[in-house]
C-alpha cells in the first residue's frame, strides 16, 4: 500500500482514534463504522495485498469490518480458488548442531519448550517462568542478575 492511496481521504477511519480498530472492547463499534464506510471495498483490497501470505496470528485490528482471522480466511479462499498451493509456514529456526542440548528443566526456556511441544510442565520450569515474569514486571527485562 502506498503512503496514501486516492480513496484513503474518504475513509471514515481517517478522523478517528486508531485505537478503536485494535481494542477488543471496541470491536463492534469498529465493525459498525466500517459497515458505513464508502471505501470499504478498496480498504479490503489494500489490506489483503498488504497482508498477503501472513499467518492469521499476525493480522491485527479491524479493517474493512473484518478481523485478522476473517481476512486470513478470505486470503486462504482466494488462494484455493486460484489453484495456488497453500503457503508453507514462515517459521525461522536456527540450525541445531550435533552437540545441541535443549535447555535444562528449571529454566524459562524449558518452560516455553514444554508449552510449544505440548509436553506437561514440571514444577521447576513453572517456578522459573514465574520468577522471570516477576523480574520482567519489576524491571522490564526477564534477565536475572548474576548469581540467581
Précis, in short:
This protein has 148 residues and is mainly alpha-helical.
Record the SSE blueprint:
Blueprint: H1 27-35, H2 40-50, H3 68-81, H4 108-117, H5 123-139
Helix pairs in contact: 4-5
GO molecular function: 4 iron, 4 sulfur cluster binding; DNA binding; metal ion binding; protein-disulfide reductase [NAD(P)H] activity
Domain 4Fe-4S Wbl-type: 12-73
Keywords: 4Fe-4S, Disulfide bond, DNA-binding, Iron, Iron-sulfur, Metal-binding, Transcription, Transcription regulation
> Low-confidence parts, pLDDT < 50 over ≥5 residues?
none
Name the helix and strand elements from N-terminus to C-terminus, one letter apiece.
HHHHH
Whole-number radius of gyration?
Answer: 22 Å
Number of helices: 5
β-strand number: 0
- Helix and strand content put the structural class at mainly alpha
Mean pLDDT: 83
What's the multimeric state? single chain
* CA distance, first residue to last residue: 48 Å
Strand content: under 5%
Amino acid at each position: 500500500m502506498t503512503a496514501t492511496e486516492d480513496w484513503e481521504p474518504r475513509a471514515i477511519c481517517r478522523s478517528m482514534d486508531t485505537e478503536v480498530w485494535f481494542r477488543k472492547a471496541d470491536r463492534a463499534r469498529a465493525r459498525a463504522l466500517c459497515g458505513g464506510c464508502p471505501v470499504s471495498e478498496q480498504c479490503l483490497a489494500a489490506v489483503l495485498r498488504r497482508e498477503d501470505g501472513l499467518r492469521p496470528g499476525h493480522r491485527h485490528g479491524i479493517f474493512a469490518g473484518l478481523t485478522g482471522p476473517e481476512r486470513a480466511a478470505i486470503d486462504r479462499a482466494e488462494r484455493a480458488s486460484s489453484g495456488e498451493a497453500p503457503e508453507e509456514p514462515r517459521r525461522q529456526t536456527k540450525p541445531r548442531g550435533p552437540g545441541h542440548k535443549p535447555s535444562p528443566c528449571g529454566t524459562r526456556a524449558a518452560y516455553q519448550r514444554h508449552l510449544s511441544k505440548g509436553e506437561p510442565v514440571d514444577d521447576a520450569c513453572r517456578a522459573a517462568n514465574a520468577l522471570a515474569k516477576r523480574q520482567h514486571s519489576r524491571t522490564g527485562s526477564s534477565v536475572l542478575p548474576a548469581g540467581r
